[in-house]
Amino acid sequence: MAERIRVGILFGGASEEREISLASGLMIAENLPKDRYDVRLLDTLALMARHPGLSAGLHEKALALQQSTPRPALRSNDDLSSAMRDQVERAESLAQPATKALALASDGDGGIDVAFLALHGKYGEDGTIQGLLELIGTPYTGSGVLASALAMDKVMAKRVLVAEGIPVPRGIHVTRVDFSRDAATAVARAIALLPAVVKPSKQGSSVGMSLVDSAPAMEVALRLALQHDDEVIVEGRVFGTEITVGVLGVLGGSSVEALPVVEIVPKREFFDYKAKYDPDQCEEICPARIPDELAREAQSLALRAHKSLSCRGYSRTDLILGPSGPVVLEVNTLPGMTMNSLLPKAAAAAGIPFAELLHRIVSLALEPR
Fold it and tell me: Could you confirm whether 332 is annotated as catalytic?
């Protein structure tokens, strides 16, 4: 029997999305084919706690989390379903520190053959961990340094998409410096886009995001978003059907394919953190209940966005089907892999079981770049 491939699932960390990352990593570990892979769950928390060069707030959070037993939840019980909370607790109990495994990987002795990235948010999805893995020569799943950094930064990603002729909502960005120097002007610029969506430029899972329908609420929304990032994007709200399209690489070649379109029907005001990770708060329909022509257009835009940002392996593009057709909202280079995640649902609709999806993602990571 062929020797099993040693997979290190990098997950956890100290970002706002730690708990979703833990749940994703556990699902990956439990579903990677056991006859092909030897799996280790590796929490990057210790890696973050030992490097004070991180932003002060995140480094302090990593230290506090590392020193707490049991670790405190970053999200309230209201934000996660009980099933998700159980997954997070189980993942915590199985996790090993990533530091030693990555050091061994760099020596090629007792380390891992490939890193499966189940990290979400800052210092996991933004090109930083990808750069570290490049330096130590460890193959990893998903996009490279440039694509990860671009997609995570909504301001920069939008500039690239616009340059490629891909439709996006009209909008502006506001920096912390802008706001501290002249909050009134920043608010006035943002109010011109009402009704609007306000969100941190470099966060995921709708962390720090607000829907704003009135001028008095705009300053509150900007202040909230700036708690999570130094730069905020404000976009005119597009009303319509929320959809998402997964893109998956084809083994043995450089081509990619678009998965079936998923329709998102939140039972809350919008597809926020709770709606994303509590199945009772959202209905996800695949294939989406939209005309075939619009589904093909959405898939084409997802493929173009994936290629424009130089994504690799897989991605998921969020869109909204507005009055003038599909509009791209953002591109996710490390979409979630929890029991409620959208990419596995789309893959299943395409006839790709979860275990086979994970196998394909690892195989793509091991192919020559």
Answer: yes
